[in-house]
């Protein structure tokens, strides 16, 4: 399952960060509202990476 791999989540986090930066330039409030979503994705990335490591999946 590709969606569970940490590499894909890292790409998603980068895309969200770029989106937040571009949206912030247009509307600061909207850009700031993306930050909690980035935090949630970062939390999910860390959780999935730790599960991936503990289960020794390759």
Quick take:
The chain is mainly α. It has 3 helices and no strands.
Detailed description of the structure:
- The radius of gyration is 14 Å and the shape is elongated.
- Helix content is 81%, strand content 0%.
- Helix 1 (6-26) packs antiparallel against helix 3.
- The mean pLDDT is 84.
- The chain contains 3 helices and no strands.
- By secondary structure, it is mainly α.
- It has helices spanning 6-26, 28-33, 35-54.
From N to C, what is the helix and strand string?
A: HHH
Question: What gap, in angstroms, lies between the N and C termini?
Answer: 12 Å
The major sheet is characterized as: none
Residue windows where pLDDT falls under 50 for at least 5 positions: none
Q: What's the overall geometry?
A: elongated
Average pLDDT score: 84
* Protein structure class: mainly alpha
Please state the CA-atom Rg, rounded to the nearest Å.
Answer: 14 Å
């Amino acid at each position: 399952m590709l969606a569970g791999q940490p590499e894909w989540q890292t790409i998603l986090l980068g895309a969200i960060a770029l989106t937040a930066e571009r949206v912030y330039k247009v509307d600061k409030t909207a850009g700031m509202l993306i930050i909690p979503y980035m935090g949630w994705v970062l939390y999910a990335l860390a959780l999935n990476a730790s599960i991936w490591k503990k289960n020794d999946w390759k």
